[in-house]
Amino acid sequence: MSDPARPAIDPATDADLTGRQVGDFQLLRRLGRGGMAEVYLAEQLSLKRQVAFKVLRSSLATDETYIKRFHVEAQAAAALVHSAIVQIYDVGCVDGVHYIAKSTSRARICASTWFGTARPMYAPRYASCCVSRPLCTGLHNAASSTAISSLKTSCWAATAK
């Protein structure tokens, strides 16, 4: 179903930002796309570390409701502190590019390392243990946090306007 209030998303209008510098971040490669944003692997130049760099789609970057949701997401995630939850390093807007810079996921690296081994029959079992335990403890931590109810309230408020 399409929502008439939601702008149509055309992936062709969102140019690949790979190679571009946005503020203190050099975008190295695109990792994925979602309905609201794209995620890049980037280097934070001042600290020489790799980060996940989430960019609000350009087709949504002029809609105040989506900009508000994007920033509320960053605030809620920043309130969660747990080793299984990515940490927010920075949030901002440079030249019309709204972004959230966050830590990269160790679980994804762990799983991809094991799936690339010479013993693929053992990889799924190990990877599921490697990913499941931190994921479950992170979800438990998030569920018991007031940040999640704050996020829901803020998203509803942003949508109602």
Give the uncertain stretches in residue-range form.
Answer: 6-10, 107-123
Tell me, briefly, the overall form.
Answer: globular
CATH superfamily: Phosphorylase Kinase, domain 1
Question: How many DSSP E strands?
Answer: 6
The CATH topology corresponds to Phosphorylase Kinase, domain 1
**Total domain modules:** 1
Using the CA coordinates, give the radius of gyration: 17 Å
End-to-end separation: 22 Å
Give a written overview of the molecule:
With 161 residues, this protein is of the alpha+beta class. Helix content is 39%, strand content 25%. The chain has helices spanning 64-79, 106-115, 123-143, 146-160, and strands at 21-22, 25-33, 37-44, 49-56, 88-94, 97-102. Strands 1-2-3-4-6-5 form a 6-stranded antiparallel sheet, covered by helices on one side. Residues 6-10 and 107-123 have low confidence and may be disordered.
Layout: helices, strands, pairs:
Blueprint: E1 21-22, E2 25-33, E3 37-44, E4 49-56, H1 64-79, E5 88-94, E6 97-102, H2 106-115, H3 123-143, H4 146-160
Helix pairs in contact: 1-4, 2-3
In short:
By secondary structure, the chain is an alpha+beta fold. The chain has four helices and six strands.
List keywords for this structure.
alpha+beta; 161 residues; 25% strand; six-stranded antiparallel sheet; 6 strands
